[in-house]
Structure formats: C-alpha cells, structure tokens
Design brief:
Elements lengths: L12 E6 L1 H5 L1 E5 L7 H6 L7 H15 L5 E4 L10 H10 L3 E5 L11 E9 L2 E6 L12 E4 L13 E2 L4 E3 L10 E2 H10 L11 H4 L4
Parallel strand pairs: 1-5, 2-3, 3-4, 4-5, 6-7, 7-9
Antiparallel strand pairs: 2-10, 5-6, 8-9
Length: about 210
C-alpha cells in the first residue's frame, strides 16, 4: 500500500477539458473508496471492524447522498487492483450515480471509460482533476483536486490547502461520504486551510486520533 504503482488501465483512457455547464451538472466528488479492500482498514485506520462493515457503510453513505441519474466525479481507486472486471462492475452497480472516472493505481480493470486527468474552468477558477497530486504540472497555477494519499499525511495533504491551491478528496477526509460540488466551491472561495471536511468526525477521519 505504501508504494506508488502507476497502473495503465486496459479500457479507454483519455484526458480532456470539462465545460462549465458539464461540471455544474455534477453533484458530488470523491476518491479512494477501496471497497472490499481488507488492508485499507489498517493502512488508513478506518473506523470499521471488518471489510463487510466498511462496504456497507460506504455504499449506504454514497447512495444516501447521490441519486441514480446524478453525475459524479470519482478520482480513482474504487476496489483493490486484483479484482476482475465482472466483480468491479458488480460494485459499480451497487453505487448510485453516473461516473466520470479518473483512474488511480488500483484501477487497471475498471470496465468503464476513464481519464488520466481532466481540467476545467468554472466560476473563475481553473481546476486540475487527477488521482495523484504528483501528476499536477509544475506550471499549473490553478487549483488541483486529487486523492491517493488518503489520511496518511494530513499536514502535507490536508482536505483544503489554500496556500498551494490543493484539495484532497480522499473519502476518509470527507467523513466517508461524497462531497457536494457546491460545498467544494464554497471551500475554494473561503480560502481557509482545513485538515478534514467540516462536520466530519475528526477522530474517525484521521489516523490514531
């Protein structure tokens, strides 16, 4: 889990630019569900006693917030990388929403179109969407939204880092539920550094607290 392995998906992969209208039709964003991944409980100190308990909580939280026809930005790592196509499709079928999928290091076999990264200009902000913050170009002057680092390094990768224009949407820092896009932009406008999403229980979101 601690090693960064770049996986190239076997399915269609693109880069692209999202229009303002398209992003405004999105309702939520999140990264790093890691459904059915036993090791992630220990690796991220997730507050669950078993993988089945974690799966149930993540799916219920997801579907309580997202309707079946709503568009969702997902920034990678849905399940462990060793899962097969039909198993991954089964998890996708359990989750509400129409996915715009950016692949992560566990997403070699995700059976839907996925993107290496996406960029957008909306509400006066330029935004780079990726799984890895390390993939953001050095000359990128706008905001970057990513996952991958979970809750492992909250000082370096907090939920909102206005000084560096970075947002970490790993599911732990969101309180284990997807983040509404409207709420996301409120944090960008506010300009306050936040370790975890307001309202998320800090002891559950961070390790060893």
């Amino acid at each position: 889990m601690g090693v960064n392995i770049l996986i190239k998906p076997r399915f269609a992969v693109t880069t692209g630019v999202l229009t303002s209208l398209y992003i405004l039709n999105m309702t939520h964003i999140a990264s790093d569900l890691h459904l059915d991944h036993d090791n992630i409980i220990e690796y991220c100190d997730r507050p669950f006693q078993s993988c089945s308990e974690m799966n149930q909580a993540l799916i219920e939280n997801w579907n309580d917030n997202i309707e079946p026809e709503e568009k969702v930005l997902f920034l990678g790592d849905l399940v462990p990388f060793e899962e097969r196509d039909h198993v991954i499709q089964g998890w996708l079928n359990k989750l509400n929403g129409r996915f715009v999928f950016i692949y992560g290091n566990h997403d070699e076999t995700v059976p839907i179109k996925s993107h290496h990264h996406l960029t957008l200009d909306v509400q006066g902000y330029s935004i780079y969407l990726t799984h890895y913050p390390e993939h953001v170009p050095e000359d990128w002057d706008g905001w970057a939204i990513y996952g991958h680092h979970h809750n492992n390094f909250p000082d370096k990768y907090p939920f909102v880092d206005p000084e560096n224009k970075r947002i970490n949407v790993s599911i732990e820092l969101l309180g284990f539920e997807p983040l509404p896009i409207t709420e996301l932009f409120s944090y960008i406008r506010n300009g306050e550094r936040l370790t975890v999403r307001p309202g998320a229980e800090r002891a559950r979101a961070l390790q060893n607290e």
